[in-house]
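Q: Hi! First time doing this. I have a protein sequence and I read that you can turn it into a structure. Is that right? Here it is:
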Amino acid sequence: MPPGVKHYEIQCRFDNRLMVGARRSGGNVSLALDFVPGATLRGAFARWHLTLPPGQQDWNGFLSEVSFCDLTPGGGAPIPLSARGCKYGEGFLDGMNGHGVYDALLPGFAHDTCCHICRGELKGRRGWMLCGAGFEFAHAEKHALGHTAVDIETRTAAPGLYYLEESVVARDGFIGEILVYPPGTIFDQLRALAVAGGLRIGHGRSKGMGSAHVFVRDAPASALPSIDERLRGMQTELNRRPGMLHAAGFSITLRSRAVLLDDYLRFRTGVEIADLVEAAGAFGGAALFARTLSGFQLAAAFTETERVFGWNEVSGMPRSPDLAVRGGAAFLFIRDDQPLAGAEVEALAQGFETVEARGIGERTGEGYGRIAICDPFHWRGEHERGGEFAPDGARYILH
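A: Yes, that's right. Below is the predicted 3D structure, encoded as structure tokens:
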């Protein structure tokens, strides 16, 4: 973590189910997200901010110095969109009855390959995973609650007016991070209020939903290796692939949704080198960082988009929807025939440390644009797959 950035871990445990709308309610079905967006978390803290005496309120510091990231089930990360698993025995190899999860980001993955255990078709999977020495799925259970409208005259169920609402429950609560840069006093006050009084998040509050007990602590050591180690690990694995002996590369994996704009303020569907240079800002090696990145080109991308919605409390109106790149999107950048020199690894590690801390794109204060550089999911596997089910020379990571 760069100097001057304070990293907190926040955990919310709910007394009842949680319902955060996935989109604007339409018709008689209300869909729910299976995580708490950073914008929703920031809104919950803003309610505590309003309770402070006017002389102690610092809206400028609240909006510009604190980044509220998404709260996910058990603190899991989105499964990369490059992941492929067996449709009949989904799950990591170390899990119960799992047939393994492949990663298709690096060169050499055969898209027509099949499960090495049952030869079943490989499919992509959405959801959450817990990262550590190995990987396992993080689960959030969705529930659907139906109810009817009441006829005012007869006080009975109104015919044809049936409503269905989704909600979510996570066994280990919802865990995320809050970044404060530079460390100030405004978040210390809000943290104390939230821990003592809890937070109210999402819809259905009159039904007892969305009441959270809050725990905030200094963030533990990251489950990810250092960026320097990740960069070197990626080079080692990449150079083992056919035709990549002298190539250099790095990957960008979105740990949250990202809102990316081009020069004409149009939404983009992928990460570009310019996003990384802009997010790194100015530090001692900024010039070498930008110069090193200029030689890389996008070689592979697994990306999807979704619309994100919000509410403007001041105007009492919904925000215009933004188009965001989905969390878990993965991008591989490669420079042919020029391995990374030692000085370049050092410059990239220093710059990427800042990029990971600050995020890329728009609305980073609301948790958008969180990334992982050279996620070990793409280059470090417990198992390696080859042989009769794969084309000659094909290599890919199996977890």
